[in-house]
Amino acid sequence: MRQVYLDHAATTPLAPTVLEEMRPYLTEHYGNASSVHQMGRRARVALDEARTQVADVLGADPSEIVFTSGGTEADNMALKGVLASASTEGKPAGLVTSATEHEAVLRPAERLREEGYPVQILSPRAHGAVTAEQVEQAVTDRTALVSLMHVNNEIGVRTDLPAIAEVCRAHDVRLHADAVQAPGLLPLDVDALGVDLLSLSGHKFHGPKGVGVLYVRNGVELGPLVEGGSQERDRRGGTENVPGAVGLAAALERAVDGREERAAGLSGLQRRLVKGLDDAVPGDYVLNTPVGAAPVAPHVVNVAFPPDDGEPLDGEMLILNLDMKGVLVSAGSACTSGALEPSHVLTALGLERETASAAVRFSLGADTTEDDVDYALETLHSTLDRMRG
Where are the beta strands (DSSP E) in 75-183? Predict the structure, then answer.
């Protein structure tokens, strides 16, 4: 059976060239980078070189790069670390974020609120992004950090980080961006973006799973999230994942190389997919990725299906039926404790529960072809036609 993988926003395949870069540190060069003997020194050199590679891509200093276990840890580290360092006894520091953030930001934000930190969660404007004007109105003298996504992982909408950075600088507030979906598609220069902290995850751009990065601008006070060692300049305890860091750095350089050409190709496929929905969808649909109406990343198309003649569509069954035909996509909702719940992103956009529960996210990759897009549209049409009778 033909298989078309359209779930690149969830994860990407490890590039063969990246695996080859990692292989020596998974086999013969297995030393602990904290050991002083020759095996440890060799690992330390590889780790330092990987740190420099990442810093060069971001326009940063190597001392500003912290390797983590992934994007989730990097997000948690940014929020909890900055707020803990900025708080004084009896006066916890505040956070501003949005209702459409990844749960790696929303969950710690909710926990911080429960612990007494002043947390504001903003509702996005029409197309799903928070504006600089909203941030201006939300920031108070207690606010220490604003955390907003560079690219939304479900609907692909981009946040105007440079405009929000101006607001943050005017109020002496730090800005964190979850940029997990951006590498290989959008520029990542931290000075141009205006961010003080930025999160990445290796497996989103053809690197290994289990490794990420938190960029921390020099001068930002950040308490450790993981304690138990002096690694990463006392900011993240634990034996360093040398092969992971080497792989992430190689994948990030690979992602930057040819970025504009790759993004242009994906934009063409994105438009082809959006244009084909009118013919592919029997009945009504809601396009949640505002292609042509607002700035979006070129790899995501999110579409939801409202009830037909009062009958809601089973979103989980739609995903499974597409899978049976070889089209691998994600739902616009998350499976939590065995129950399909509507996506918090789509409900924050105002979609009814039944519609938000019947959504599909197509996410394109470098190996996606026009034929793949056409096959996905044909399969979507036949599947919906059968499910809606």
Answer: 94-98, 119-122, 143-149, 174-178
Catalytic residue from among 192, 335, 353, 385: 335
Which of 231, 224, 174, 177 lies closest to 199 in space, CA to CA?
177
Q: 3-class DSSP state for residue 87? A: coil
For the question of residue 335 being annotated catalytic, the response is yes
Closest CA to 77 of 178, 169, 150: 178
Is residue 75 within a helix (H) or strand (E), and if so which, with residue range?
helix 71-86
Q: How many CB atoms are located within 10 Å of the residue 387 CB?
A: 17
Amino acid at the residue 2? R
Which residues pair with residue 198 across a beta bridge? Answer: 177, 215
Crossing angle of helices 103-114/71-86, nearest 10°? 30
pLDDT tens for residues 226-235? 999 999 999 9
Cα separation, 290 vs 267, whole angstroms: 13
Structure tokens at 234: 């006392």
In terms of Cβ atoms closer than 10 Å to its own Cβ (0-12, 13-18, 19+), residue 334 is middle
pLDDT in tens, 70-89: 999 999 999 999 999 999 98
The stretch 49-71 carries a mean pLDDT of: 98
Distance CA(97)–CA(215), nearest Å, equals 18
Contact 179, 199 (CB under 8 A): yes
Q: In which residue are the tokens 């035909």 written?
A: 325
Tokens of 81: 């670390």
Lookup: tokens for 190: 């931290």
pLDDT in tens, 263-272: 999 999 999 9
Taking only the tens place, the pLDDT of each residue in 96-120 is 999 999 999 999 999 999 999 999 9
Q: Output the CA angle 344-346-348, nearest 5 degrees.
A: 65
261: how many CB neighbours lie within 10 A of its CB? 9
- Say what the pTM is: 0.96
